[in-house]
Amino acid sequence: MRLTDRSVKALKPKAERYEVWEDGRTGLGVRISPAGRKSWIYMYRFSGKARRMGLGTYPAIGLASVRVKHARAKELLAKGTDPGAQQTERKQAERQADTVADLAEEYLEKWARPRKRSAAEDERILNKDVLPAWGKRKARDIRRRDVILLLDGIVERGAPIGANRTLGIIRRMFNFAVARDILDATPVAMVKAPAKENRRDRILSADEMRTLWNGLEDAAMSPAIKLVLKLQLVTAQRKGEIIGAAFSEFDLEEKAWTIPAARAKNGVTHNVPLSPLALGLIEEAKSLANESGWLFPSPRGDGHINPKAVNHALWRACMPPEKRPQAARFSKTPAIGLTNIVPHDLRRTAASGMTALGINRLVVSKILNHVDNSVTAIYDRHGYDQEKRQALEAWGRRLQEIIEGRKADNVVPLVSA
Q1: Distance from C-alpha of 360 to C-alpha of 415, rounded to nearest angstrom
Q2: Positive/negative CA dihedral, 272, 277, 282, 285
Q3: 43 beta partners
């Protein structure tokens, strides 16, 4: 039979399945089922044995397309490759290919959880926006356009910064897939962050530090959270490292706090000398804590205070009482009197306050426990403990002057490099 679109379309079903072959012994044919389904087939011999392979269904695959597939199969056969076996292997590989859900789990298990303190946040974002949309799809089928449309949807629901965070996690996950040879390329290449982010540079003035410190006395928050915020301003340490502190990390006789590598953001054990002002706050915190072992235990008894609770408490304390939720137990306490402030601003303020005293920026960087990847840092194993102590004690004295409204001493203690 001469195969044309017209002749194939005219083929009618019979009581039994039957096949029609193209003239000229090309091996190309059509199988017609009793239900009228038409499938393209290719009959050939390989290693002396008769074989057949499917080339798709009609009319989804038209005659022109099937001739291309037929020609490719014949070319493979001429090169000594069984085209049907290759097709079967390809289909099996397709069935076994990682879905986005598979990739997400491997990314979390093999990369995020062992390396990132924020792995739980990665998992939350993946579960919230990525997996509901892509979870069942093959990871290799995700295209740049899919990424853009997903981010657009997040922006349109009013979460542009959330879209940026989602993009960051998707980018890391697909880069991980390329590095693990799961994918050949990432669909996130050239995708730009959908929202512009302004880098915070908020630093409290001396008057604002005094307002905050004294305003915390009657602020709309728990006594423990007040101490967390004060310690951040006094020690310049990260909020998460303060609220996660255990009693065992403190040596009050040596006036030192050791943040273990497992809790430090950069994975390096960090020694924080404690000024008299810091020691007083820690003693106060210990008097409030229960027997859980945490310096700032959760009121629910399930670990330490939630980091988000600190942010929320400061936001609420700055809000005028009439605008707070009436159900809140702090609804009628006075506002602190500051605006546009988050806990991390206190760490930045402390660092800036120390450099303003003339303290060397390298010493301040050591206090902040910033990562130093310079060549010099590889050879410089000096701990800078004495310099850090001098700097933090100088900052503690200056902060005490600010809190009490006293003028700074004429002599400014300097820490040399």
Answers
A1: 6
A2: negative
A3: 52
Cα–Cα distance measured from residue 198 to residue 1, given in angstroms and rounded to the nearest whole number: 71
CA distance 314 to 310: 6
Element (H, E) at 49: strand 49-58
Distance from C-alpha of 298 to C-alpha of 289, rounded to nearest angstrom: 9
> Do 103 and 62 contact (CB within 8 A), yes or no?
no
pLDDT in tens, 95-138: 666 899 999 999 999 999 888 877 888 999 999 999 999 999 99
pLDDT for the residue 197: 75
Tokens describing residue 293: 């072992």
User: Helices in 264-372 by DSSP H: which ranges?
Assistant: 276-288, 307-318, 344-356, 361-368
Q: Which residues contact 319 (CB under 8 A, 6 or more apart)?
A: 220, 335
The answer to whether residues 186 and 171 touch, using CB atoms and an 8 Å cutoff, is: yes
φ, ψ for residue 237 (rounded to 5)? -95, 165
Note the pLDDT tens digit of each residue in 41-82: 999 999 889 998 998 899 889 989 999 999 999 998 888 988
211 close to 338: Cβ distance less than 8 angstroms = yes
Residue spans per domain, the chain: 5-95, 100-179, 206-404
Residue range 16-25, pLDDT digits in tens: 999 999 988 8
Terminal CA-to-CA distance of the chain, rounded, Å? 92
**Fold that domain 5-95 belongs to in CATH:** Double Stranded RNA Binding Domain (3.30.160)
Tell me the DSSP string of 91-119. Answer: HHHHHHSPBHHHHHHHHIIIIIHHH-TTH
d(CA 105, CA 92): 22
Q: Which CATH class is domain 100-179?
A: mainly alpha
Query: What Å distances lie between residue 367 and 285, 338, 357, CA to CA?
Result: 22, 27, 15
Specify the CATH architecture of the domain 206-404.
Orthogonal Bundle (1.10)
